[in-house]
Design brief:
With about 1000 residues, the chain is mostly beta strands. The protein is about 10% helix and about 45% strand. The chain has a 22-stranded antiparallel β-barrel. Strands 10-15-16-13-14 form a 5-stranded mixed beta sheet. A hairpin with a 4-residue loop joins strand 34 and strand 35. The protein is elongated, with a radius of gyration of 34 Å. It starts with a helix and ends with a strand.
Length: about 1000
């Protein structure tokens, strides 16, 4: 028995000795892609012992030989590793679902996504790739909370508007773009297929490093680069068609003639109704002008790229061609773009690397009237009477083979007084098909954009890096418009031009050429270091920017020969209407900036930024502006009390505050200008030497929540920003003389809102899906204007303190007058009211019985209250699908086209809504009587302010990839993907205009966005 006890005691002692024996374990922690993870945490499970990796990912720790190491790094999945007596361990961590460990490029520097403390959004490039559009801005639509993107019109090559967190100023609200480290005010020249990543800097903390140009936000674009490995070739081609959709229903011939007959009867005229007699005419057409104007549009795109490299050199070369022929007949609404891009990076030593990004873009646009502006092609397709045919009969004595189109209604000769044409009965609008045919407006631009850079690493571990970057943005433009004379002779015009058609009389050529270049040179020192649980990143730099622009133009009239061979200035008349001119301007910006980020144990983070800018656009005493910011972050999920809450994988609070600037004003606004009158020079504008920056102060509070290994990720931000010292034109008293307004700092505008972004992702099964949803609210308000400028008034809008920018202002409809007694009672303060039963009744806001300017009020808001987007994508084996919904809510638009088609009292064509017009007591309280007299519709009123909220299915793409099948072959083809893509599939809206999405809040008849169907193939070698 004693021997047995002795043996048990020895065994116990040996066991205790083995458990207490510790060994030194060294190792390295990397990502599964081989990237060293500096600052990764290593903790002994169920013990307090911890350490962290250095910048190279290496660590050393003494632990029991049977210990279990818990390894964690922000943005990567935790991993438990048994030591099992090993003294050397290599550990590779898998990225978490949302990629918090990914590096986000912020322009001058970059940070891990997990360490960001500002309001910064990265675009899901997989969602972006599914948008087959020519412009990068279009592809961004619906992708980022708080970023509203709209096309000015649906015409090919038209501008795209980008607004980040609403309209912040009365002036320029466009964001700054940073493309491969070079600032730009435009991204339309980029090919969407060339984009590697897009980051949106929304708050002051994120954007303050760009100072005086960042008040409207910053969008950082990084283009694709070559990577180490075999050469890869990528070919992408698609071809498709576009059709117009959602056109209004207009009156046909019979309906139109009945409506004109009704209008004449309601106008108090005497004699025989001429429209009653005309109903029996045999020369009346039944033209659907919209059908005649719109055709099937076409587009195609070809992109080819090659990339690859070695340890020493990586390269990428790409070229693309995009073309679109719009939906209006005669191909004078085309757009083409050619792109060529190359970048090379050479690692000369382990410390020194050099490289270049260079791209050329050539754009050609056939510019068509697309906003209802003169000559108003779209507008005239809706108002031209259907009784007029498109073409003249070849037997007509006025028929001309070079101009076969009808012009003046039922034209016979140029003497109207003797029955030459019937404009008294049929308003002589323009023939939209003829306008489209004779439009000849060419816009060409050639851009060179790129940079060369060098980067050198100091210190033993290259923790300190110096980078110098020299960039060029060179633009050359050539615009040429030939206005050819056409149409019928109405007997008017200069004596020299008698007998010519009334359109473009006399003919003429306008031509201008311009060039503009911006040179940017920035130098930065960037230091990044991990000291145990401490991580430091610091940046200091300088930037110099110089811009020069010049243009020259000329015009001539009365060209004897009009074919393209003679469409040059020298072939025009040289006696009268000769004009030429030219100008130039320049500006410069010098900046000093710095940024520092500190994080402790991946839990506590702080970032500070400061930029000082000196701009030539301000007088000497106000040239410098200073733009600081600070942001803080607390990753609660890394606290010990959260370690057992396994379902929360990430929880971070963020807060920031800072100041941004805006220097986007005229180059010489602070100077006094002179003009010559006779032999004397007089002041034409008084300068303002105290002119200074517009300043935007912004605060942001945010929270990021990741659930279930970040398969569900939610970000919520609340922001408040106020722009002060907004530039306003102030007119001086008449006693000063005839001078232009002086620019002063006086206005103040505020924006507040909430942004929510939600991502749901699951890649654990054969069916993989990704859902990205975002919604953002914005409340806009004018806080202050100048005492001498209490409001800024437009045709239909007014900017005034206490209301949103450019709010609609006018009368409020209060029904339809049903009888004369109602008119007499309601307008009791008006001696002899001109209103008739059936006319529009407006609210008498001051109850004085008189409808006048005092009864106007604010009737609508053109600033969206909130915008949203929903991206749905999924894949199963070789199949993939992508769906994008996008929309805005709480936005109004002034539908001036509705005013013409539904309420105008001239004999234009009308929409079928006028068939419901008032025609007797009790018949309608919404649509006034049809008449050739004013029925009240000439007033600016809420009748024409419509809710332009919409939900649009922007994109649906379905594809199939043959990659798995091709892997089993020796063809050298890595993948072939076939896809079909549909765009603008349907729109849900109450707006009665052609397109609720266009940027113009005053809609005169906008070229609508088209419904598109595209077929494409992507081949990778």
């Amino acid at each position: 028995m004693k021997k047995i006890l002795t043996l048990l005691l020895v065994c116990f002692q040996m066991t205790a000795f083995s458990q207490s024996t510790e060994i030194k374990v060294t190792g390295k922690i990397t990502s599964v892609f081989g990237q060293p993870l500096g600052g990764a945490s290593i903790q002994v499970k169920n013990a307090a012992k911890t350490t962290s990796t250095d910048a190279a990912g290496s660590f050393s720790i003494t632990v029991p030989q049977d210990a279990i190491l818990v390894v964690s790094f922000v943005g990567y999945q935790k991993q438990e590793v048994p030591v099992a007596g090993k003294t050397a361990i290599m550990i590779a961590l898998e990225p978490a679902e949302t990629g918090l460990g990914e590096v986000v490029v912020l322009g001058y520097n970059s940070q891990k996504k997990a360490n960001l403390t500002g309001a910064i959004s990265t675009v899901n490039m997989a969602d972006l790739d599914q948008r087959k559009v020519p412009d990068v801005a279009q592809a961004l639509q619906g992708q980022v909370a708080g970023v509203q993107i709209t096309q000015s019109t649906g015409a090919p090559g038209e501008d795209i508007s980008i607004r980040i967190r609403g309209e912040g100023t009365i002036g320029n609200n466009s964001p700054l773009f940073i493309i491969d480290g070079i600032p730009s005010r435009d991204i339309s020249f980029l090919s969407p297929s060339d984009i590697q990543s897009i980051t949106v800097l929304k708050d002051a903390s994120a954007a303050a490093i760009y100072g005086s140009r960042a008040s409207a936000g910053v969008i950082v674009v990084v283009t694709k680069t070559g990577k180490k490995g075999a050469t890869n070739i990528d070919i992408n081609y698609f071809n498709g068609i576009q059709k117009v959709a959602n056109l209004p229903k207009m009156l046909n011939r019979e309906q139109y003639m009945n409506k004109m007959e009704e209008s004449w009867n309601n106008s108090g005229f005497t004699g025989t109704n001429p429209y009653t007699a005309d109903k029996s005419r045999t020369d009346l057409a039944n033209t659907d002008w919209q059908k005649e104007l719109f055709e099937t549009g076409r587009s195609q795109n070809l992109q080819v790229s090659a990339s690859g490299g070695s340890d020493k050199i990586q390269f990428l070369v790409s070229g693309s061609y995009y073309s679109q022929d719009g939906i209006v007949v005669y191909d004078n609404d085309q757009y083409k773009r050619y792109n060529f891009r190359t970048n090379i990076r050479a690692n000369l030593t382990n410390r020194l690397s050099i490289g270049t990004n260079l791209q050329f873009s050539y754009e050609l646009q056939d510019k068509l009237s697309s906003k209802g502006d003169a000559p108003g092609i779209i507008r005239h397709a809706l108002i031209r009477p259907p009784v007029i045919p498109v073409y003249k009969d070849p037997g007509d004595p006025t028929y001309k083979p070079g101009d076969p189109f009808t012009d003046l209604p039922f034209y016979k000769h140029s003497d109207q007084a003797n029955g030459g044409w019937e404009s008294n009965k049929y308003e002589y609008s323009s023939n939209p098909v003829a306008l489209a045919y004779f439009t000849n407006d060419k816009r060409n631009s050639l851009k060179t954009f790129g940079n060369v850079y060098a980067e050198y690493g100091f210190l033993k571990d290259n923790a300190l890096k110096f980078r110098t970057n020299l960039g060029i943005d060179l633009n050359m433009t050539h615009n040429k418009t030939f206005n050819q004379n056409f149409g019928d002779d109405d007997g008017g015009g200069n004596a020299t031009d008698k007998g010519q058609g009334r359109k473009n009389r006399p003919n003429g050529l306008n031509e201008d050429r311009g060039e503009e270049y911006t040179i940017t040179w920035n130098n930065t020192l960037n230091y990044t270091k991990a000291f145990g649980k401490h991580n430091i990143s610091a940046l200091a730099g300088t930037e110099y920017i110089t811009n020069y622009a010049s243009s020259i133009g000329a015009s001539r009239s009365r060209f004897e020969y009009v074919n393209t061979t003679f469409q040059y200035i020298d072939y025009g008349g040289s006696q009268t209407d000769v004009w030429n001119g030219g100008n130039g301007s320049e500006w410069g910006l010098f900046s000093l900036f710095g940024s520092a980020t500190y994080s402790y144990d991946a839990r506590y983070m702080a970032t500070v930024n400061l930029r000082a800018d000196a701009s030539s656009r301000f007088a000497e005493n106000n040239q410098w502006g200073y733009f600081p910011s600070v942001s803080l972050g607390w990753r609660i999920s890394e606290e010990k009390f959260m370690q057992d809450v396994n379902w929360i994988s990430d929880l971070k609070l963020r807060a920031s505050a800072g100041t941004l600037g805006n220097q986007e004003i005229g180059n010489y606004a602070y100077l006094t200008l002179l003009r010559k009158t006779g032999d004397q020079y007089v002041i034409s504008r008084y300068g303002n030497p105290d002119l200074k920056w517009e300043t935007t102060r912004q605060q942001n509070i945010g929270v990021d929540i990741g659930i279930l290994r970040n398969k569900v990720y939610l970000s919520v931000d609340y922001f408040s920003k106020k722009t002060s010292d907004i530039l306003l034109p102030i007119s001086l008293p008449a006693l000063v003389g005839s001078v232009s307004p002086t620019i002063v700092n006086a206005g103040e505008v505020s924006n507040k809102g909430i942004e929510i972004a939600l991502n749901l992702r699951n890649n654990d099964h054969a069916f993989k899906y990704d859902i990205n949803a975002n919604v953002a609210t914005v409340t806009n308000n004018v806080e202050k204007l100048h005492p001498n400028l209490p409001n800024i008034t437009g045709n239909v809008s007014r900017t005034q303190v206490g209301h949103p920018l450019s709010s609609f202002y006018g009368y409020v409809m209060n029904g339809i007058y049903q009888n004369q007694a109602e008119i007499t009672s309601y307008l009791h303060g008006t001696p002899t009211p001109s209103e008739k039963p059936g006319d529009i009744k407006f609210k008498d806001l001051n109850n004085d019985g008189i409808i006048n300017d005092n009864d106007r009020t604010f009737i609508g808001n053109p600033n969206p209250k909130f915008s949203y987007g929903l991206n749905l994508s999924g894949s199963y084996k070789g199949f993939d699908i992508g769906i994008l919904f996008q929309g805005v809510q709480g936005v109004d638009k002034y539908n001036d086209l509705k005013k013409i088609t539904d309420y105008d009292t001239r004999p234009f064509n009308h929409s079928i809504r006028t068939l419901e017009a008032w025609h007797g007591e009790g018949t309608s309280n919404t649509v006034p009587r049809s008449t050739f007299n004013d029925n009240g519709s000439s007033r600016v009123s809420d009748i024409f302010v419509e809710d332009a909220s919409y939900l649009r299915l922007k994109n649906l793409e379905i594809g199939y990839s043959f990659g798995a099948m091709l892997k089993r072959t020796n063809t050298g083809i890595k993948n072939v993907r076939l896809y079909v893509s549909a765009q603008n599939i349907f729109t849900i809206t109450d707006y009665t205009g052609l397109d609720p999405e266009s940027t113009d809040f005053f809609d005169q008849g906008t070229y609508p966005q088209s419904r598109a169907l595209l077929f494409g193939v992507n081949v990778q070698f």
